[in-house]
Structures are given as structure tokens and as C-alpha cells.
Design a protein that fits this description.
By secondary structure, the chain is α/β, with parallel strands linked by helices. The chain has 2 domains: about 80 residues, no CATH class; about 200 residues, von Willebrand factor, type A domain (Rossmann fold, 3-Layer(aba) Sandwich). The protein has 10 helices and 11 strands. The strands form 3 sheets. It has a 6-stranded mixed sheet with strand order 5-4-3-6-7-10, sandwiched between helices. A 3-stranded antiparallel sheet has the order 1-2-11. A hairpin with a 3-residue loop joins strand 4 and strand 5. Helix 3 runs antiparallel to helix 10.
């Protein structure tokens, strides 16, 4: 049940001081008599009128409350919604090689990628999203799902060292393709993020791109890392020392992968640039949501009005019959 004029319900608060006034008035108007011993009246039977003494006031309060509800126009709704979604299935292929620990992005490349990916997922509530991780080999961290709460929890667990080190870009694409190839979605997309050059795996990146193209899958590639040198942490004993390492991203191959599949290549040299890349991809791959909605509302004040009338009628009858001589 909903209320068309819900603000009228605040008038119910005015009944509180009215009830307090009634209690104080009855207390001050009661007659008193001082006697030496009241035990003689202890077993005096009470008349039924004593129990009905406050009934008129209670009925008036109920009637006023019901009238306020009538003013607020209670309604029942009968509605249904049929959403037709041209869904997009998205696999995030994320590089988890140890080079992703470089701190040219803060706190490092991997954590920055996880944060921006989480924001991206939150902005795609109607899409199936999954995660593929790759380093020297590749595996699926989470298959396609609309349960984004589970997906976001799994993203938190992504870290370097889960699999053998290296950069198998082709395997990362191929693994994501296996999750998307049988999809019936209107659009199928892979967002691949890496900071290096393919140096492992049985499938070359360009071959994997051709496979993706054959299944109608579009690949957006992101090269993450600053230009020139980047600080990389090396644990030494109980401390961490930083060594500047050259940033080597195979932009040519990543551009070819994107071009083969009608996607785009992006370069993210900072946290803000990485966020802008995901925002751009989000604009390019918008879900179309067509909603058909039917809604019918029916006024339900009549029963409340009838109950209020009966309360008023009963109060008048009590005051002019049984309780007529009682103040």
C-alpha cells in the first residue's frame, strides 16, 4: 500500500499532545475524599461503566487517526515490468605477472587496475562480467556472472604469484574467448590489461585475436605503465629496495589485436589515465535497456472512512446512552 499524499501522515503527531491533555484534564477534574481507612471499599464491585469510561475518547482518537489516513489517500498498486535487455558479456583479462608490482601507478599497477575494474563493474549492473588472469599461463578467476557482489570479492583476492610468472597475452585472450564463444549476448567483449610483451604460452596474441574475431568478440587492449623507467620493489632481507626498470609494452601487438577484432588500444600511464580508459570503454559499450511497465493504482480510502464514521457513531451512542450521566 502506498499513499498519494503521504505528508498528511505527519498530522498523526498532533494526537500525542491531545492524549496528554486528556490525561492531565481527567487527573485534575477527579473529586477526592479523605477517609481514615479505605479497606472497606477494597472489595466493592466495579460497574461496567467504569471500564467504558475512556472508551469515547479512545474512539475519537481512532476516528481522527483514520480521517488523517483518508486525507493521505491510501492506494494499492497492481504493476508488472518486463525488461528487454540487449546484454553485453564482458571478460576482464588481467595481467598478474610480477612486473605488475611496479609502482609507477599507485599503490602499484595491479592494485590500480583492480580499483578501476571494480568501479567499471559497479557501473555495469545489467551485464554479465567475468575475470581471466594470466601470467606465464592463464586461468579463470570468475566465469561470467551477474552476481557482481561475488565478482567484486574475487577481484580483491587477485594478486601476483598465483601462477607461474611470465606474460602469456595470447593465452589470456584464448581463455577469455572460451568463456564468451557460446554466449548469446548481443555484444561480447574482452578488456585485456597488460604491462609487458608476450613471452610465454602456446598461442600467439595475434592468433588468439583471430579466434576472438571468428566468434564475434571485440577486444579492447590496455597497456599500463609510465613512459621510460618505473620503480620496482625488490625484497632484500627484511626490507624492500627499489630498482628502476625499463617499461617495455608491446604496443604494436596490442594495437593489432584491437584492430583485428574491431576494438581499440589504450595507453594508461597513470591512475587517472587508467580511469579515463575504462570510462571511454564504458561509453563505447553501453547496454540498451528497453523497459515495458504497466501500473494501476486503486484508491483504498473508503474502508478507512467507513471505520472512522463507525467510531464517531459509537462514541455518540455511548455518550448519549450508557455514559450520559458520567462527565
Amino acid at each position: 500500500m502506498v499513499f498519494a499524499n503521504i505528508e498528511y501522515l505527519f498530522l498523526l503527531l498532533l494526537l500525542i499532545p491531545y492524549i496528554v491533555w486528556y490525561i492531565m484534564k481527567r487527573k485534575n477534574s477527579e473529586a477526592t475524599l479523605q477517609i481514615s481507612d479505605a479497606r472497606v471499599y477494597a472489595h466493592t464491585p466495579k460497574s461496567y461503566k467504569n471500564y467504558l469510561l475512556h472508551a469515547p475518547f479512545a474512539l475519537r482518537i481512532i476516528a481522527l487517526a483514520l480521517i488523517i489516513i483518508v486525507l493521505s489517500r491510501p492506494q494499492t498498486t497492481d504493476s508488472w515490468q518486463n525488461s528487454e535487455i540487449e546484454g553485453i558479456d564482458i571478460m576482464l583479462a588481467i595481467d598478474v605477472s610480477t612486473s605488475m608490482l611496479a609502482e609507477d601507478l599507485k599503490p602499484n599497477r595491479l592494485e590500480a587496475a583492480k580499483d578501476v575494474a571494480a568501479e567499471f563493474i559497479n557501473g555495469r549492473p545489467n551485464d554479465n562480467v567475468g575475470i581471466t588472469l594470466f601470467a606465464g599461463e592463464s586461468f579463470t578467476q570468475c566465469p561470467l556472472t551477474v552476481d557482481h557482489a561475488v565478482l567484486l570479492n574475487l577481484i580483491k583476492d587477485v594478486k601476483c604469484g598465483l601462477i607461474e610468472d611470465g606474460t602469456a597475452v595470447g593465452m589470456g585472450i584464448a581463455n577469455a574467448v572460451t568463456r564468451l564463444k557460446d554466449s548469446k549476448a548481443k555484444s561480447k567483449v574482452i578488456i585485456l590489461l597488460t604491462d609487458g610483451t608476450n613471452n610465454r604460452g602456446e598461442i600467439s596474441p595475434l592468433t588468439a585475436a583471430e579466434i576472438a574475431k571468428s566468434f564475434g568478440i571485440r577486444v579492447y587492449t590496455i597497456g599500463v605503465g609510465t613512459n621510460g623507467m618505473a620503480p620496482y620493489p625488490y625484497p632484500v632481507g627484511g626490507t624492500v629496495q627499489y630498482v628502476n626498470m625499463p617499461v617495455e609494452i608491446d604496443e604494436k601487438t596490442l594495437t593489432q589485436i584491437a584492430g583485428t577484432t574491431d576494438g581499440n588500444y589504450f595507453r594508461a600511464t597513470s591512475n587517472s589515465k587508467l580511469k579515463e580508459v575504462y570510462e571511454e570503454i564504458d561509453k563505447l559499450e553501453k547496454t540498451k535497456l528497453n523497459v515495458k511497465e504497466y501500473s494501476k493504482r486503486q484508491e483504498e480510502y473508503r474502508w478507512f472512512a467507513l471505520a472512522a464514521f463507525l467510531c464517531v457513531l459509537l462514541e455518540v451512542l455511548l455518550r448519549n446512552s450508557i455514559l450520559k450521566k458520567i462527565p
